[in-house]
Amino acid sequence: IAILSLAGIVIMLVRHGKKRQHALIAMNNLNLELEEKSEELKAANEEIKQINDTLEEKIKHRTSEIELQKNKILDYMTYNSHQVRGPLARILGLIHLFKTDSPTLSDINRVIDNLKQESESLDIMVKQMNRRLEEERN
After folding, report:
1. What is the DSSP string of 33-68?
2. 3-state secondary structure at position 106
3. Residue 103 burial by CB count (10 A; 0-12/13-18/19+): exposed, middle or buried?
4. Nearest to 108 by CA among 94, 91, 88, 87
């Protein structure tokens, strides 16, 4: 009976050892899988960080481009409102004087000469604006 009991205990110990060995192998496999997943996550996090850094740089670059375009538009508007508006206002004033007075022939000639002078001045301003816009485009 002692031998049978001892044999039963040995069989139980062997079975328990095999179960324990299978459990250790399963745990090692899970540990390896976890390590793989951890490395994949680290690589994905690094890729996301690089994408974010690149995106931030693109945003800074585009923001500076937009700021530059805004400043160009403001310069153009300032130039347009101050430079072009002067000759145009003088032309409109001459036309108004011409309509309200009873001009003599010499008045008419003087007004026409002034209109021509201011029109040429306005033409020069428009050409300068076009040239400036072309230069900025190139």
Report:
1. HHHHHHHHHHHHHHHHHHHHHHHHHHHHHHHHHHHH
2. helix
3. middle
4. 94
Q: How many whole angstroms separate alpha carbon 115 and alpha carbon 121?
A: 10
Give the rounded distance of the alpha carbon of 22 from its chain centre.
57
Model pTM above 0.85: no
**What tokens appear for 110 in the block?**
């003087």
Query: Could you give the CA distance from residue 118 to residue 88 in angstroms, rounded to a whole number?
Result: 7
- The token pair at 43 is 């690589």
Q: For residue 138, what is the DSSP state? A: -
DSSP 103: -
At 96, the amino acid letter reads H
Q: Which residues, 6 or more positions from 79, have their beta carbon under 8 angstroms from its beta carbon?
A: 129, 132
Nearest to 80 by CA among 116, 133, 137, 119: 133
102-130: pLDDT as tens digits: 777 888 888 888 888 888 888 888 888 88
Half-sphere exposure of 129 (CA within 13 A, CB side): 19
Q: Which amino acid belongs to residue 102?
A: S
